[in-house]
Amino acid sequence: GAVVSQHPSRVICKSGTSVKIECRSLDFQATTMFWYRQFPKQSLMLMATSNEGSKATYEQGVEKDKFLINHASLTLSTLTVTSAHPEDSSFYICSAYRDRGADTQYFGPGTRLTVL
Amino acid sequence: AQTVTQSQPEMSVQEAETVTLSCTYDTSESDYYLFWYKQPPSRQMILVIRQEAYKQQNATENRFSVNFQKAAKSFSLKISDSQLGDAAMYFCAYSPYGQNFVFGPGTRLSVLP
Fold it and tell me: Using an 8 Å Cβ cutoff, are B36 and B46 in contact?
């Protein structure tokens, strides 16, 4: 149990376009999901916390109009990178928080975004 | 603010030997969780082990065990009988109940055949 999927695994796009990344908890409901960005050889940097049915909470320095987050159901959160620039190229990882005794984050496999 | 420190950027261990990865954290909370996650070259974050702060008994999961010293705010991971598949980045993480996780900078573990 506690499987989280993320789609797509890799995406290449042109500057100025938008890209949507989906994060799904497959076998549990997650009222809270998280979005991270990871630079090469570094730790995970929290971008935002996504709560089902409410607005996401963004970390300081993360542009909420650039990184749109929607948590429409208890099993799905999406991250849309709008008007992508080459500096947005990175590895994006989502996680779903499982409570009720687990109190643990389970991670998706990540998405490699390359903006040309 | 809570912080997590992993003082060993890189470690190596011979196959079948034992290695210990260090982690210290700073918090004023009394109840919280601590985790070790593994990130192999595939970059999938995998939960290795979890410890609840109110439990004095150290958590174990097969070849993985922790040494949790609450007063010292230390949470080390011991890997016994190391295998080639254990080679990965290991992240220590702290979480106050129901709140965001704080990750350490990671330790890269190499396993030598």
Answer: no
The larger pLDDT score, comparing residue B100 to residue A13, is at: A13
pLDDT tens per residue across span A46-75: 999 998 888 899 999 999 999 999 988 999
Percent of chain A with pLDDT over 90: 78
Residue B97 forms beta bridges with which residues? Answer: none
- B45 in Cβ contact with A93 (< 8 Å): yes
Share of chain A above pLDDT 70, in %: 97
Residues within 8 A of B (CB atoms), A 84-113 only: 91, 93, 95, 99, 103-107, 109-110
Contact A22, A92 (CB under 8 A): no
B110: burial class by Cβ within 10 Å (0-12, 13-18, 19+)?
middle
Residue to test with chain A: of B33, B99, B100, B109, most A Cβ within 10 A: B100
Q: Do the Cβ atoms of B45 and B68 come closer than 8 Å? A: no
Which residues in chain A are contacts of B97 at CB distance < 8 A?
103
